[in-house]
Fold these 2 entries.
Entry 1:
Amino acid sequence: MEFNAYRRPDGGVGVRNHLAIIPSVFCANNVAKKIAAQIPGAIALTHSVGCSQVGADLEQTARVLKNLGRHPNVGAVLVVGLGCERFTASELFAGIANCNKPVEMLLIQKEGGILKTVQRGIELCLKLTKHLNNVTREIVTLKELSVGLECGGTDATSGIAANPVLGFICDRVVESGGTAIFNEVTELIGTETILASRAAKENVACEIRQIIAATEAKLQLATGDPQLQHRSALISTGNFEGGVSSVVEKALGNIAKTGKSNIAGTLSYGEKPLGRGLFLMDSPGHDAESVTGLVAGGCQIVLFTTGRGTPTGFPICPVLKITGNHETFEAMPDAIDFDASSLVNGIAGISGVGEQLMINMQEILSGKLTKAEILEDYELLAVSRL
Amino acid sequence: MKTQGLIYQINLKDNVGVALTKLFAGERCIVLDPEKQEVAALVLTENIPFGFKVALCEIDVKKAIVKYGEVIGSASTYIKPGDIVHINNLTCDRGYLKKEQ
């Protein structure tokens, strides 16, 4: 399968051509938004990190924000900093400039406040827009595609319809030489033996077990307080109401989206894989934190299954939403892209529905907007803390 | 003519099936195997909402409840074939500190 994408100076391909305005620290969020509001097509990547952080937590923030700036869906970047933050604007600037992406930088304290920074930001963005207009799409193959696999709002249809269809896509992408990444480790509890058996190498099997065991240990601690037993459910109200009874049941339905390929390796949060294939990323189950990790890991599109329905999307990456619940599709047509519910009662087979979703995905990759992009639903940007 | 209720047994090892439509107490439903072929019939003891689990055979207290071919929890009470299986009669201790015996 082929699709049309933008070739970037570092050799990667992007399915969008965004002008991203990235604050190095949350203090610059509003200035970034005000600049973006004046430039057609610009998006501010606002977040809540960048200062009062140390060690591995700060390193993780640095990695994620740099990788978002370097992302192939982004054609040009304006970095906006305050001037005193722990994660400096100049470090973010340098980390993006070294992949030869057009990038500029501003500091609010140096420019002299909000309005002066906004004005200078608009001037710089107009300059950067010229770079965006100089690129055109070319034909590329699945080898250059990295898909993120995500689920949110799980119900009983997720494991028998939407996730198996995603598994079909995942297998097709990986067989074609491309990459797929899954994460949400909280929702892998109970699947460690199955996943470890699919590891391409023994050390990968160990890493998979360790990642899941570490998350389970954290959960055991968190749910151990006798005063907080009413806050100890491991799955959501919506999951229970949707017929899912335990975190293991949820997890087993969840892994259907990873298809049958071997697992080539594991990744830290927001880390880009060095090779191709199917990878497990260590992320929490929080939808926004996990999608942010996938995009920072280089995924050019996120395929998101949802039984209960969710409007959410991500600023610089199309999030294609799929449901296996026909009622959900009918109830939220402006939030869901694909109806896989014909799999539930056996009328359709997985490969038939899978081929339809492949075509849908190809159109989205080549420029058609997802429902979330049409309504500018960008809730899923959240950098996970350690 | 009313279509017969369908229950899907995802894996041959499963002792619970998934209601593919809303099902009613007393209804005689068709059980579909993993290939969605008709293999058995089951009379329900209670209403089963769409997507919820129903016991395909009896499950004793503390015995494993199996779905997708794997243990998803254990029975906290005796379960009869045709009973709903959900948080009222299924417990799972993964993610929790093991209680002292």
Note: Chain A touches chain B at residues 155-157, 159-160, 189-191, 194, 216, 219-221, 223-224, 232, 234, 240, 242-243, 245-249, 252-253, 325, 344-346 (CB under 8 Å).
Entry 2:
Amino acid sequence: MELAKRKEFQNTYQLITAFAGEFGNNSFDHNLGNWRDEPGVFFVYDSEKNFFVVADRGQGVRQTLRDIRPDLPNDAEAIRVAFTEIISGRSPEHRGNGLKFVRRAVKGNSTFRLFFYSGRGEYQIVESKDFDGLGEKDYKGTIAILFFS
Amino acid sequence: MRIELKKFGEMLISRPAGREAYLAAKAYLLPKTKNEEIIIDFSGVEVLTPSWADEFITKLQEDFPGKVSFLNTENPSVKATLETLAELLKTGK
């Protein structure tokens, strides 16, 4: 692990890796056998600009929650619920804690900045504060971008 | 008994891997009686996610209620994961 060798990330590389792992887990767990077109996860990291991207061409968050929360009015609300409530699109399976873990840990360290997109929904955590809203672009699937410096 | 989690790997990340680890532990490692104390030792674990932990640690706590404790939890991802699981337990989900 490249990050582990860098002094400035000695106490955070474990969390950074765990975040990427959880986003990747979600991509596969919620889209296996049901990919929109391209199966799998896109992952890239930049060790100079200190960020990673995990993205998929899956159903998107709102669609994965449709059976248990058909009332969600838009993509932004769906993402907010996914990050703040203990809920899973694969209910009644015992799941639903990954994004809560990410939110809690990112908010707990102001060097982390998270940008998450699905459909027209956008969710950000910057300087430990979160924000959700609707954007103009409609992302087919999900995109998670984490800056860690 | 003490379970050294690093024997399942240093990077404990995916849910399927956690599920498989617990099934293997049930078959070959875990005590057959529910009375024995079980200590989970996290030394040597580099990364732990709630997805993996939910399939192993949560299931262990359900199968051995009140008998599971933890050792060497300083790793930030271990600490954060256990806090997340504890919160889940509190809300009953």
Note: The mean pLDDT of chain B is 93.
